[in-house]
Amino acid sequence: WSGSFRIDGAGEFVIKLRRRLPSAPGASSSSSSSSLSLGAAAAAVAPGAFVAQSERKGELDEVRLLRCVVRLKEATYFVMFEESTEPAPFLVDNRCKVPIAYYQSGTAFYDVCPPGASRPYALDDLSQEQLLTVKVVGADDRHERELSIGHVHDCPKLYYPNYFYIAAPGLPAGGGGGNGGSGGGGPAALVLEVKRLPPRPRAPG
After folding, report:
1. Exposure string (b/e) for 1-20, b if CB count within 10 Å is 16 or more?
2. At a CB cut-off of 8 Å and minimum separation 6, what does 66 contact?
3. Nearest Cα to Cα of residue 63 among 27, 90, 100, 94
4. Which of the residues 119, 164, 182, 196 has an alpha carbon 20 to 30 A from that of 58?
5. Residue 39, helix vs strand vs coil
6. pLDDT number for residue 80
C-alpha cells in the first residue's frame, strides 16, 4: 500500500508502495543475516522495483514507485497511474563509516543505508511534511536529527555515541595481588584506576 495523497488538485507526483518480503528459511532476525540476503532479495523483486532494508528486525521491503497524474477536465478530476521511468525524487548518499537509519517524520517506515552506499528514496506519505528523521543505527532516539528535504540547505550535524569497553582477565589466586597482602591464597583483587579525562567535543558522524 501507499501513503495518503491528495487528488483534489491537478498535478504530477510520485507515490511509493511497499510490500514486505518473506524472510529466508532459517534466517534470524538480526540485521547482519538480513544484509547477507539483501542481494538475493534485490534479484527477486519485480522489474523497476528496489529493496529497502528496515532497521526493525532487519526486515526487507520491496519498494515500487508509481507516477500519479491528476488532471481536471470540465468538472471531473481524472487520476492516472503509470510506471515511473524517472529516477527516485531523492537519493540518500551515506558517506559515513556507520550505517544510518532514516524515515519520514510522522510515519513508521524505517530504511537503512549501509556505510559508503546510496539508496533511492521517496516520501512514504505525501500528506505529511517533507521532513526526514535520521540517526545512526543502534543509537537511541536522543541522537535523532530532523531534516527538511524540501529545499537545499545546510543540515544540522549528526552525532552518535561511541562506546568503548574494558576487559580485565582474572589473576590467579594468591598471585601477589590478593586481598590482605601477598601469598594469602585468597581470590585476587582486580583494581582499575581511572584518571579524569579532559572533556572533548563529540565527533560528528
Report:
1. ebbebeeeeeeeebbbbbee
2. 2, 14, 15, 17, 81, 82, 83, 84
3. 90
4. 164
5. helix
6. 92
Hunting for cell 507526483 — which residue is that?
13
Whole-angstrom Cα distance, residue 130 to residue 133? 10
Three-state DSSP state, 69: strand
To the question of pTM greater than 0.85 for the whole model, the response is no
DSSP helix/strand/coil, 7: coil
The Cα angle at residue 65 between residues 64 and 68, in degrees rounded to 5: 140
Q: Which residues lie below 8 Å from residue 141, measured CB to CB, with a gap of 6+?
A: 135
Question: What's the sign of the alpha-carbon dihedral 50, 87, 128, 9?
Answer: negative
Question: How many CB atoms sit inside 10 A of residue 83's CB?
Answer: 10
**Alpha helix positions (H), the chain:** 31-36, 38-44
d(CA 176, CA 118): 56
Query: Distance (Å, rounded) from C-alpha 115 to C-alpha 50?
Result: 18
Contacts of 46 (CB under 8 A, 6+ apart): 62, 64
H and E: helices and strands count for the chain: 2, 10
* Interatomic CA distance for residues 124 and 13, integer angstroms: 12
Greater pLDDT, 145 or 162: 145
What the block records as the C-alpha cell of 119 is 539508496
- Asked if residues 52 and 41 have their Cβ atoms less than 8 Å apart, the reply is no
Three cell numbers written together for 183: 601469598
